[in-house]
Amino acid sequence: MDAGRVIGLFSNIAVIVASIAAVWGVSAWRREFRGKRDMELAENALELFYRAERAIEAIRFPIWNLADGRTRSPEPNETPEEKEARDRAYVVFKRMKDHSDIFDQLYTLRFRFMARFGRDRSKPFDEMKRVVDTIWVCTQKLAEYWAEQLRDGDRTHQSTKNEITEYERVISYAGAKDPTESRVRDIIAEVEGICRPIIQGKRSWLSRLLRGAD
Questions:
Q1: What residue segments make up the domains of the chain, in order of their start?
Q2: Which terminus of the chain has fewer Cβ atoms in its 10 Å neighbourhood, N or C?
């Protein structure tokens, strides 16, 4: 084989090797870029869940400033009992409104999370929304039951008293065995189980290579 043909052969091999290296490099870059996006999305989601957890704690803080309730615009023909009960409930509604941006961000992120990681990974988002919705509904019901209790006093039916106790445990911290707090912790644990492997596992291929060379 003459020198020209040898040089040509090696040139062709060099082109093939360079092409393979280029394709591998692009694929590695794509994996790296995709991994970085996954990490950012998982970190963002986990941060919002932590913020939502703190927001729920603030909403359910057992010490109330009733002055906040008096900022509510009363409805026409409210009885004194209805006004007091609705003012009391408005404290919770105001707290929820003050933290609504956190929940809005979390619910909006839910769709990106589903699109990236699968529909089955949306459960913690749905569960957190149910917690917030439950607090809202129970507060609405308490506004009615409190008015009834204020009006009837000792004549309040026992079933109403039981409902009031149950709903108050939802909207306000209920101690060491608080069911709502336990429920939120379970949600946080579940989302940590989803997000932390993504955050910790999507390492740069270059970083892994450099660590292997140490």
A1: 37-203
A2: C
